Amino acid sequence: MKILEHVMNNLSFSRTTWHWHIQDPASQRLTWNKPPKSVLVIKKIRDASLLQPFKELCVYLTEENNMIVYVEKKVLEDPAIANDDNFGPVKKKFCTFREDYDDISNQIDFIICLGGDGTLLYASSLFQGSVPPVMAFHLGSLGFLTPFNFENFQSQVTQVIEGNAALVLRSRLKVKVVKEHREKMTVQNGIEENGVVSTNIEKEVGKQIMQYQVLNEVVVDRGPSSYLSNVDVFLDGHLITTVQGDGVIVSTPTGSTAYAAAAGASMIHPNVPAIMITPICPHSLSFRPIVVPAGVELKIMLSPDARNTAWVSFDGRKRQEICHGDSISITTSCYPLPSICFRDPVSDWFESLAECLHWNVRKKQNNFAVEEEEF
Fold first, then answer.
1. Is residue 157 helix, strand or coil?
2. What is the Cα–Cα distance from 160 to 276, expressed in whole angstroms?
3. Greatest CA span in the chain, whole angstroms?
């Protein structure tokens, strides 16, 4: 994996000692090989408060910077945009696309998100390979992953276009779901050719393989069933544990401040190369979240004696059922998401912890009163 190769390239050995040179996260900078010409603007859908910022940004990009602006087709279908005659000349310059239909992965130089953390997750889902740098404006509810305020967007966008910005490479998970493809067919009159009575026949006709790039987490849960989830977790081919509870979360460091944090996990800085495994309401007093090295391969399957199926989702999307014989393979992707920082990776992260999650907020303890000396 590229992350591991980067770490190993910074190791130097001698006969008697070894030295590990760790790169300062603040030293990662955005540099352009050539000036950017195209930008993808992602706007939170069905949010009227974002219409004006969206229009102002697009006018600035097209008229002031002569940029090619890509937007999703359904964004322009909003009546407030479609019926705005003053915005018409700008709309004609847009390049549009449809999710799951049009491939724009090789046409975008960088991305601007307007909304909350969900817009960044959505941007990640659009790029199953290399991801362009992402600049995220805080115009949603939480905004842990969106460090920029929109008030001074002109100067901030200009700095990005000029290549004057810090970066944090947010690792993603490469996920492969292998399903035993089953086809249910009803036999006419309930009788097969051999005379055996049967109404529904389930036949395996091969395997179905799906792959995803995940920025936050993979969640395996019990779904609508009232029974405990019962899944086996393998690490590099070895069974490490069986999860009996509501489910399990496999997250990136970026995802450690999302669902995993709500389930009691530690919060990991996005520069740390790691994968976190967090149980959801385990029926065990000793099952604590664990952190494993980036690059290992995890596999999750239903236990042979599981009473019910499980369900899996990827960054809250593409939810699907997992049955006996299906498997979910997870490892660190070689395609991280380059997130543009407001200041630097460390300052932005701690500011988000304080502002969004109120990390370690407590009333200050009073000091002892100094008693006057008696004479």
1. helix
2. 32
3. 112
Burial class (CB in 10 A: 0-12, 13-18, 19+), 262: exposed
Q: Which contacts qualify for 5-13: CB closer than 8 Å, 24 or more apart?
A: 7/273
E strand residue ranges, 254-344:
274-280, 290-293, 298-302, 310-314, 317-322, 327-332, 337-340
Helix 153-161 to helix 51-59 angle (10° resolution) is 50
- Going by C-alpha positions, the residue among 162, 298, 160, 285 that lies closest to residue 217 is 298
Helix or strand holding residue 55 (H, E): helix 51-59
Tell me the pLDDT of the chain (375 aa) as tens digits: 444 455 445 544 444 555 566 666 667 899 999 999 999 999 988 888 999 999 999 999 999 999 999 999 988 888 888 888 888 888 888 999 988 888 898 999 999 999 999 999 999 999 999 999 999 999 988 889 999 999 999 999 999 999 989 999 999 999 999 998 766 544 444 444 444 444 344 444 578 999 999 999 999 999 999 999 999 999 999 999 999 999 999 999 999 999 999 999 999 999 999 999 999 999 999 999 999 999 999 999 999 999 999 999 999 999 999 999 999 999 999 999 999 999 999 999 999 999 999 999 989 899 887 765 555
Among residues 47, 78, 103, 117, the one annotated as catalytic is: 117
Residues contacting 213, CB < 8 A, separation 6+: 124, 125, 127, 128, 129, 172, 173, 174, 175, 333, 335
Measured between alpha carbons, how far apart are the two ends of the chain, in Å? 73
CB 331 within 8 A of CB 273: no
Phi-psi region at 286: left, alpha or beta (left = phi > 0; alpha = psi -120 to 50) = alpha
Q: Model's pTM, two decimal places?
A: 0.85
Instruction: List, in order, residues 6 or more apart from 131 with CB less than 8 Å away.
Output: 111, 123, 124, 335, 336, 337, 338
Respond yes or no: is residue 102 known to be catalytic. no
Helix, strand or coil, per DSSP, at residue 195: coil
Phi/psi for 263 (5° steps) reads -90, 5
Partner residues linked to 185 by β-bridges: 201
Among residues 16, 85, 60, the alpha carbon closest in space to that of 153 is found at 60
Q: How many Cα atoms sit within 13 Å of 81 on the Cβ side? A: 26
